[in-house]
Amino acid sequence: MAAVVLAGGRARRLGGVDKVLLPVGATTLLERALGAVAGSAPIVVVGPRRATGAPVLWTREEPPGGGPLAGLAAGLRRVPGTAEFVAVLAADHPHVTAATVDRLRRSVGERSGAVLVDPGDRPQWLVGVWRTAALRAAMPADPAGGSLRSAVAGLAPVLVPDVAGESADVDTPDDLRRARDR
Which GO terms describe its molecular function (predicted)? Predict the structure, then answer.
């Protein structure tokens, strides 16, 4: 299994800081995401280069700031064709762990993928494990500014319930405070 970690974005609601370098506990959001997919090879990180404690491949979406779908498409271009599965994880989900990714992978079964579902039953399209070929086939020719949900929802992934808040992401100062308090 390969992994694509989305580590771009403008973090407007956090004042434009480099969100993935914010610490939660003793670890940055980026390092937490890399830990969750540590068993994957390769790990492709989409976003500006930053220092990491893990060996990763870096890439950028075109155009920069083109959104999550463009980021995913860029990441998939670096995933080898031999990878049957690819974990997809936005780096702003501090409570996703290796156990989460493993649970998603085991849930795929014969389907095209599995995504985490938050307590409100909303699929978290940026926390999933997919069959690489199916995900590649779902990518539009021009992904810039496109909707990730529109591209992948038709793949009908298995919906895997959140366990103890692992679907929570960090988009606002209040989200960051809650993540740090947990």
Answer: nucleotidyltransferase activity
